[in-house]
Design goal:
Number of strands of chain D: 11
Largest sheet of chain D: 6 strands, antiparallel
Bound molecules: flavin-adenine dinucleotide, nicotinamide-adenine-dinucleotide, flavin mononucleotide, zinc ion
Chains: A alpha/beta (418), B alpha+beta (98), C alpha+beta (985), D alpha+beta (167)
Shape of chain B: globular
Strand content of chain D: 35-45%
Distance between the termini of chain B: 43 Å
Order of helices and strands of chain D: EEEHEEEEEHEEEH
Shape of chain D: elongated
Number of helices of chain D: 3
Radius of gyration of chain D: 16 Å
Structural class of chain B: alpha+beta
Oligomer: heterotetramer
Number of helices of chain B: 2
């Protein structure tokens, strides 16, 4: 696989761009693989890459029902942070952050990881105390974090609403300087290309429609491209986890909900950080192309449709103006939705399953983009060794039965009902 | 907006309602001591891509809890009724012999 | 240059009586009412209007509608600065200040146009392949410059002074599009008896008919159709209104621009977003013409044929005198004919071997030169076209020209009909996509269905309008529409195979995507249309590829040797045209962002200078400045006064629920962890509710007013959730229980009088009432009347002092509040705020929000005994899960600061004295307060049960205050009066 | 509370809202309604959204088993003895406020406040619509060709009337 570099660009420029190769082969399925990863999203592709890279398991296929990166990895608002509170989450997301910091070079694909810093505004003394608690935990786990007072926030992001008509005045903020964004598509393509470079087959337009059993073991999958045998199978289909889980006979604590995202017309640089509104549901960053990319809350009902409704569009716009009155005349260019695998404690599930040969990676809710590298790393380890990686010990299916739930927000099961 | 036809208030935007999730899961009796039963009720969801029976409360209207049958792929609504009515119907069913 | 020198002396739909002045990049220019900015610029001979996104190539005006990729400008300044507006959709208004964008230092001379020379390196997606070193954070360096180079217009940073509205509307039949199809659909539906809304983004009705000469048959048909529609008062004609999105439940999102030409008194609404709920919808959105792909096809002076015709006939502008019409179909010939008739020298280059004889004949008659089987392969020109290179049967030849009109066929406008997820379907005969399928209550008509000829479109609209009306029960018989035949010959267009000479051939003009980029994407395996789009950014600009997408996917289909339908289209998403975020927010901005909730005593708090605090939607007194200069002074003073004399607190924000019915007691027994069935009438009890998963949900006191009636209070924050939960259980789980629950939160003003003097205050305030401890013991109730309003006095204490909660009809709240202060003056009764309230409860060891954080159980909070041996209540079973019983679970303890000059802080992490402070620690400080009682800081904490022995020490670590560490002793959470004497004393 | 604003031929007045809620138990609803209508001396609105006017009393059905009895200013509360085995009653008048609006332009103004179709039978004069106004539950009463009222929670009344006044 030819390396990408400034030099390769020069060389190709002179030869009229005629000599570039495919980023990954257009593979057709073999009759069987050591490992089949279902789902060509960020997590599935990363898993395949680390299976080869870390565990030298190369007879691997990634099966994607549509086009690689067409799921949530290709439609998310790309916020990457490691400001988690609870033991089990904190370390996992910080490990992920470290992998992000080296991803472009590890993959030889520029994923444009931009550590521009993320802040969340606080609107009362109590809220700021809560943020301080979080920041303290981060620092004590070796993660960068800062608490800003109102004036420090004003200096950093003067265009927020500091006027006296603000409905929820800004008291301060929590800030993580290493947080930021990355180019969503590049993450999918970068992992696909790197995995392909290790011999992994990336098979698009190949929907898994069922599982092949031998006794109580799963030994392969039925697909729209025929039956494919597998030693082990990793499930990484995000919003569709329940659909395939049910086919495999798993009973899962997951509901699929739609989350919308929004982008404005391209503008010259305006928002230099990731800014989140602590008084309501709105967060925003500016893509390198210039669009303000923002999001809000779930639409609030089970959905497998990749689109939302006008009510949430308006609520998000209201919150946007409440935080940033200056974007009133900026125009919304496009809005879309993605299907989210919501768990009762809003934390993910990565683990072996009761079914031999089947491994589960899902329940990422609206936070799984930032987890992509660590998830792939740990899931690959779990599939390769059959034992959960220590960093995902807390993400087992049985935690709901035992009560070891990880509820960062403390809203409980069916959080999305509130 | 989803337009939900409340049996007593007529068709309304869904943001007049509070969503209550899967209505097909059966809540154990209040004094049912079986942890497994409660675990299933609180956590396990079939989460179908297709017809889904779900609770909605017309919270800014008549405040009644409704059961709506909606296709989660396209939001087409097949049926709406009062949760009480269905509950009552079910319990009579349960009483009837066989 | 004489102003308007390209304007014809007569014709058009402009009002020559009303000249309009505006500036473009500082140049003063003039136009007429009825112009768009684009038509006015053309009339003034301005050809160079913008710069492209990537290569900063000079660009002109390409279209006459919202599909415009090139002519984007910035309007206004400061808070009214609005970037990226297509000049083709801006209705010209007096005093408009317009700037070109994405250029520096000037439009004519733009430094970054060197990017054009770098083009070989800046191929699609080049940035994925480089900028990866030398250091880890290298990208942060490159990104800085890339961000600066990217983006189009610049947004302002001031708040927008203008006003927006969001409205709710309803209709039987909504019709999107006011062209011939839409007009006849609207007429049919209205005549059938339906309430109709006709939605047109333009400021004139007529659609493509506006491109017909203003004295033509088409024009008189239009006049008559409009008059007829205005005759129905059940038909709303919504001009300047774009349907930007189509949503579930037949809801359309509309955005209406106010008429910029009529002078508005200030404060008038600039834009209105309407949520239109229609019983049925007719989409008559027309079709968008496609460009042709050849070298330098993006130069100023290249224009869509239908647009050129619009500028000539609608705006009476003749942008060129020597024109080339390059086409694949019949439609563009009409442009040629009209220009010839207007005196221009015209050549038609038709790709087809044998253009229809009828057209050829008319061309000959009008002196139009016709070149069959001929196409443009290259174009020469900088800021305006000079020459094209034609390639035909008799080889290559050059032709001088000052305007090039192109037509690569038409694409039906299927955006809105695709928003709900139905993929459009390819139709061979028109070589374009039409709506795939229509759900019930939705219809299509005219060009958007591929029905191009005007006469047919009118009949199609009539059919759709009639069906739409009858689908909502309106089916009065409707007379046929008056006919209009523009003798358009059928539009068979020949698919154009892009032909590329040496210069770049653009497919997506705005995003600077060329045929080479598409080839590169294909070569690198980004061959799915969605990959093509994302890799090249094709169709991702402000125009969303309205003109370009088809050509691109056709090119990809060819490269893949696949059919067009197999190659497919990218997903259409709202909005159809961009919508200002402020318009979507409407009036819900500033203090109207969320409604403000005020207690009955609100005005008193304001009048007495209370510092107020937002708590959810509520406004609550935080502290009273007369108690101290800042909150820290004030709350301690207010606390002291409560402990030593008496304090008055507004607690009206508590959730209050009336619970009634024969089974009320049974019901409460199930929803509370502690029992209520045996609670005597006239007594109150503190209760805790769990969630189904066994975690604490909310707490409050519930009082038994009568055998069958209870008065429940909840926390301020959970009031709504608790009520819905109760209703949920009654409706879905226990419908057999005869219980009614009703929110009475607004019904009662509530205030608490706390402190040693509180009883004295009460007897002074209510001389007629017996408030003795016999009549009103701790947890007792006294019901009465005050000033004709119901009165309830509960003897409850949150602060640990003797205290009373007084509930009175809300309308008498402020009056009673004042009365109490007056009666209490002799006893030093002073008001106190939420900060003091919080501190008092900390001193007394009462848990609240910071402890009830959605992760703690009864046992964690030291309330396990409340449930005792009970079972059968909500959450009982799952609270017994092993993890929730573990010995090292964090439990509530009290902490006492034992280092002089130091203080405890909420959010500090707890470690053992001997251990290295790293990780998550053994627990955390949840709430703190200075304790006047103890003379130092005390706090509540959640601490691992296995290290929580009273008397032992912990260290509270607070990295956020430069790693402050504070030693603290573990004590009982009840810092004050453990025996509870003060409650009674 | 009784204030008012008046502008370009639109008037908004704010008044107290004496109000009693009665509710019957599932199963014995017919007896309950019989007894209520007997003691009120009038028939009851049959379905949610219907209202019945009777001697300074406006009876609104707000839910299948719930009625609101709204009293005009000055009218005495009816003597209602609800049999606890049939249902119950609770006064709500202290916590509600009536916003009365009239004006030719009222339909347009309302369209910026509530999702009510002014021209639909469900909103015809004499009808009530339970809906939301800027996230707050309200009852819309259509009182005339160009007049209507909103019954709103007292704690939100000022915020909502400000919204209307700015409209
Ligand atoms: C609008 C939005 C905003 C978000 N914002 C953020 C954010 O700011 N930060 C953050 O960290 N996270 C965010 N997320 C969450 C994040 O995008 C997801 O958690 C994450 O991408 C999920 O992992 P994935 O990439 O593997 O999922 P996906 O990309 O969805 O991959 C799953 C793949 O499985 C495929 N698949 C499904 N069924 C089958 C089948 N039967 N056979 C074969 N293949 C199948 C799908 O086509 C899909 O490509 C957001 C999500 C959305 C929708
Ligand atoms: N010569 C050709 O080959 C050819 C091809 C296609 C169409 N046509 C012409 O098009 C016309 C067909 O009539 P028609 O009525 O179907 O199309 P039309 O283009 O005349 O009318 C469509 C109208 O819908 C409006 N519109 C589109 N999207 C909208 C939105 N989202 N919101 C609000 N308004 C929107 C447009 O502004 C336009 O006024 C005929 O006059 C025909 O001559 C000609
Ligand atoms: C971070 C990010 C930035 C985006 N920027 C743009 C943009 O500038 N222009 C655009 O048209 N779409 C943009 N999109 C949206 C995509 O076009 C697309 O809508 C989204 O990836 C979902 O795919 P779908 O609409 O095909 O379902 C962006 C998406 C993301 C996730
Ligand atoms: Zn209802």
């Amino acid at each position: 696989m030819a390396r990408y570099s400034a030099f390769s660009i020069l060389r190709n420029a002179l030869s009229g761009q005629k000599n570039w190769q495919r980023a990954w082969r257009a593979a057709e399925p073999k009759s069987s693989y050591d490992v089949i990863v279902i789902g060509g999203g960020g997590h599935g592709l990363a898993t395949a890459f680390y299976l080869a890279e870390n565990h030298d398991i190369r007879n691997v296929a990634v099966l994607e029902k549509g086009y690689v990166g067409g799921g949530n990895v290709g439609r998310n608002t790309t916020v990457i942070r490691s400001n988690y509170l609870l033991d089990g989450n904190t370390q996992f997301y910080e490990f992920s952050m470290k992998l992000w910091e080296d991803m472009s070079r590890a993959l030889n694909f520029n994923v444009m990881f931009s550590q521009r810093g993320q802040l969340v505004t606080a609107h009362s003394a109590d809220q700021l105390d809560g943020f301080s608690h979080r920041a303290n935990v981060m620092r004590l786990n070796g993660i960068d974090a800062d608490i800003l007072d109102r004036e420090e926030v004003r200096r950093l992001v003067p265009y927020l609403d500091f006027s006296d008509t603000a409905r929820f005045p800004i008291h301060g903020a929590i800030f993580q300087g290493r947080a930021g964004t990355a180019r969503h598509d590049a993450v999918a393509w970068g992992y696909a290309r790197a995995a392909d470079g290790h011999g992994v087959d990336i098979i698009q337009n190949c929907e898994v429609t069922g599982f092949v059993r031998n006794g109580d073991r799963i030994v392969g999958v039925e697909t729209t491209k025929g039956r494919i045998g597998a030693g082990k199978i990793g499930l990484a289909v995000a919003g569709h986890t329940s659909v395939l889980g049910t086919k495999a006979g798993l009973e899962l604590p997951i509901e699929s909900h739609v989350l919308q995202a929004f982008v404005t017309e391209p503008l010259k640089p305006l928002v230099d950080h990731v800014v989140a509104y602590g008084a309501d549901h709105f967060y925003v960053s500016q893509s390198d192309k210039g669009g303000l990319v923002f999001g809000g809350n779930l639409d609030g009902y089970n959905s497998y449709a990749q689109r939302g409704n006008l009510g949430v569009v308006r609520e998000v716009a209201e919150a946007a103006i409440a935080l940033m009155p200056c974007i009133s005349r900026v125009r919304l260019l496009r809005h879309w939705g993605g299907v989210m695998d919501m768990t009762p404690d809003a934390s993910p599930i990565i683990c072996p399953t009761p079914i031999e040969g089947l491994y589960l990676n899902g329940g990422w809710c609206y936070g799984g983009f930032k987890a992509t590298p660590a998830s792939g790393w740990c899931f690959a380890h779990t599939i390769a060794t059959g034992k959960p990686h220590p960093l995902i010990a807390a993400y087992g299916l049985d935690r709901f039965r035992t009560g070891h739930t990880l509820d960062e927000a403390g809203v409980g099961p069916s959080a999305w009902l509130q | 907006m989803l337009r939900i036809e409340c049996p007593c208030c007529g068709p309304r935007d869904h943001d007049e309602f509070r969503y209550g999730g899967d209505a097909s899961v059966k809540r154990p009796a209040h004094d049912d001591p079986d942890p497994e039963a409660w675990h299933r009720y609180v956590y396990i969801r079939t989460n179908p891509a297709g017809p889904h029976r779900e609770f909605w409360q017309h919270v800014t209207g008549c405040r009644q809890w409704l059961v709506v049958e909606r296709d989660t792929r396209n939001h087409a609504i097949a049926a709406v009724d009062f949760a009480r009515k269905l509950r009552a119907r079910k319990s009579t069913l349960r009483k009837s012999p066989a | 240059m004489s102003s308007n020198h390209k304007r014809l002396s007569m014709g058009g739909r402009i009002d020559r009586e009303q000249p309009v002045e505006f500036t473009f990049d500082g140049r003063k220019l003039a136009g007429y009412r009825g112009d768009t900015l684009a038509s006015a610029l053309l009339a003034n001979g301005v050809t160079l209007v913008g710069r492209s996104f990537k290569y900063h190539r000079p660009r002109g005006i390409f279209s006459a509608g919202p599909e415009e990729p090139n002519a984007l400008v910035t309007l206004g300044s400061a808070g009214r600065r609005e970037p990226n507006l297509p000049a083709t959709t801006l209705e010209l208004a007096d005093g408009m200040v317009v700037e070109s964008q994405n250029r520096w230092p000037s439009l004519a001379f733009d430094v970054q146009s060197v990017n054009g020379l770098l083009a070989p390196f800046l191929s699609a997606g080049f940035y994925y392949k480089t900028f990866m070193g030398p250091t880890r954070r290298a990208w942060m360096f490159y990104e800085h410059f890339i961000r600066k180079a990217a983006g189009l217009g610049r947004a302002g940073t001031d708040a927008d002074p203008d006003r927006y509205e969001v409205r709710h509307a309803f209709a039987d039949v909504a019709i999107v599009g006011g062209g011939p199809a839409g007009l006849s659909a609207a007429r049919a539906a209205a005549a059938a008896g339906a309430r109709v809304a006709l939605i047109e983004q333009d400021f004139l009705l007529g659609g493509q008919l506006l491109a017909e000469p203003s004295d033509s048959a088409a024009a008189s048909w239009l006049k008559q159709a409009e008059a007829e529609l205005e005759g129905f008062e059940t038909a709303a004609l919504m001009k300047r209104t774009a349907a930007f999105g189509s949503y579930d439940g037949n809801v359309l999102g509309l955005v209406e621009q106010r008429d910029p030409t009529d002078p508005q008194p200030n404060g008038e609404t600039r834009q209105t977003v309407t949520m239109l709920r229609a019983r049925s919808i007719v989409f008559a959105t027309g079709a968008i013409e496609r460009p042709m792909v050849f070298s330098n096809n993006d130069r100023p002076g290249v224009m869509l044929a239908s647009a050129a015709r619009t500028y000539l006939n609608r705006f009476a502008v003749l942008p060129g005198k020597k024109i080339i019409v390059a086409t694949t179909n019949d439609g563009a010939w009409r442009t040629a004919f009209d220009y010839a008739a207007a005196g221009a020298e015209v050549t038609v280059a038709d790709l087809r071997p044998v253009p229809p004889a009828a057209l050829a004949a008319e061309a000959a008659w009008l002196g139009v030169v016709v070149r069959a089987a001929t196409r443009i392969v290259d174009l020469n020109g900088g800021h305006a076209v000079r020459r094209v290179t034609l390639n035909g049967p008799d080889g290559q030849s050059e032709a001088a020209c000052d305007l090039v009109c192109v037509s690569g066929g038409w694409s039906p406008t299927v955006h809105l009909t695709s928003h709900l997820g139905s993929k459009p379907a390819y139709r061979d005969d028109i070589d374009g996509f039409v709506p795939g399928s229509f759900p019930a209550g939705r219809f299509g008509a005219g060009a958007m269905m591929g029905t191009y000829a005007t006469g047919d479109a009118i009949e199609d609209g009539h059919r759709a309008g009639t069906e739409a009306a009858s689908s909502c029960g309106k089916s009065a018989s409707v007379p046929a529409p008056s006919k209009l035949d523009l003798d358009e010959t059928a539009t068979i267009s020949l698919r154009e195979i892009p032909s590329v000479g040496r210069g770049k051939a653009f497919v997506d003009f705005q995003m600077d995507v060329t045929t080479e980029d598409i080839e590169l994407a294909h070569r690198e395996g980004y061959e799915s249309v969605e990959h093509l789009k994302r890799y090249t950014t094709l169709g991702m600009g402000t125009d969303q590829g309205k003109t370009s997408n088809f050509a691109a996917l056709a090119a990809m289909a060819t490269l893949r040797r696949a059919t067009i339908p197999k190659t497919g289209v990218t997903t259409f998403r709202p909005p159809y045209t961009p919508v200002a975020i402020g318009a979507l927010a409407g009036r819900a901005t500033g203090h109207h962002f969320k409604p403000i909730r005020r207690t009955p005593m609100h005005d008193w708090h304001m009048a007495n200078g209370a510092e107020m605090l937002e708590v959810g939607l509520w406004m609550r007194p935080y502290f009273y400045p007369q108690s101290g200069r800042d909150v820290n002074d004030a709350y301690v003073a207010e606390m002291r006064n409560v402990r030593q004399a008496a304090g008055l607190m507004d607690i009206s924000t508590l959730g209050k629920i009336d619970v009634q019915g024969p089974d009320a007691a049974i019901f409460l027994d199930r929803i509370y962890a502690n029992g209520f069935a045996k609670l005597p009438v006239g007594r109150a009890r503190y209760g805790v509710m769990l969630r189904d998963d066994g975690i604490v949900f909310d707490d409050g006191t519930t009082t038994r007013l009568a055998e069958n009636r209870f008065f429940m209070t909840t926390s301020t924050a959970k009031a709504a959730d608790v009520l819905s939960r109760l209703e949920f259980l009654l409706d879905t789980a226990w419908p057999d229980l005869r219980v009614a629950v009703t929110s009475v939160s607004d019904e009662w003003a509530a205030m608490s009088v706390a402190g040693p003097n509180s009883r004295a205050v009460l007897s002074a305030a209510f001389p007629a009432l017996d408030v003795s401890d016999e009549a009103l013991p701790h947890m007792g109730l006294l019901e009465s009347e005050w000033e004709g309003r119901a009165l309830r006095i509960l003897r409850l204490s949150y602060s640990g002092e003797r205290a009373y909660e007084i509930y009175v009809g809300a309308t008498a709240g402020e009056q009673l509040w004042s009365r109490l202060l007056e009666a209490g003056r002799a006893f030093d009764l002073k008001p106190y705020g939420v900060e003091a309230l919080g501190a008092l409860r900390v001193e007394k060891g009462h848990v609240a929000g910071p402890e009830i954080d959605g992760r703690t159980t009864l046992d964690d909070l030291g309330l396990g005994r409340m449930a005792g041996k009970r079972s059968g209540f909500v959450g009982d079973v799952l609270r017994r899960r092993p993890a929730l019983q573990a010995p090292n679970r964090q439990r509530l303890v009290g902490l006492e600061c034992i280092e002089d000059g130091k203080r405890l802080r909420g959010g500090a992490i707890l470690f053992l004295p001997d251990e290295k402070p790293y990780g998550h620690g053994r627990g955390r400080v949840t709430s703190v307060s200075f304790s006047p009682e103890r003379g130092h800081y005390v706090g509540l904490a959640l601490l691992a049960g296995d290290v929580a022995a009273e008397g032992s020490e912990v260290v509270a670590v607070y990295p956020m205050k430069d790693d402050e560490t504070v030693r603290a002793r573990i004590v009982s959470p009840v810092f004050l009066d453990p025996q509870g004497e003060r409650l009674h004393g | 509370m009784a204030s008012s604003m008046s502008s370009r031929d639109f008037s908004l007045s704010v008044a107290d809202c004496p109000l009693i809620q009665v509710e019957g138990w599932d199963g014995t609803l017919t007896q309950f309604e019989k007894s209520v209508s007997a003691s009120l001396g009038t028939k009851l609105p049959a379905s949610v959204g219907e209202t019945v006017r009777h001697k300074g009393l406006l009876i609104i059905r707000v839910a299948p088993r719930r009625l609101w009895l709204a009293l005009d200013e000055g009218t005495q509360a009816p003597a209602l003895a609800v049999d606890p085995d049939l249902g119950c009653s609770v006064p709500l008048g202290e916590g509600r406020v009536r916003l009365k609006m009239t004006g030719p332009d009222i339909a347009r103004l309302l369209s910026g406040c509530v999702t009510v179709d002014w021209h639909a039978p469900a909103a015809a004069p004499g009808r009530a619509v339970l809906t939301s106004f800027h996230h707050v539950s309200v009852v819309f009463l259509r009182t005339g060709e160009t007049a209507c009222e909103l019954i709103v929670p007292r704690s939100f009344a000022r915020s909502l009337s400000d919204w209307i006044a700015d409209g």
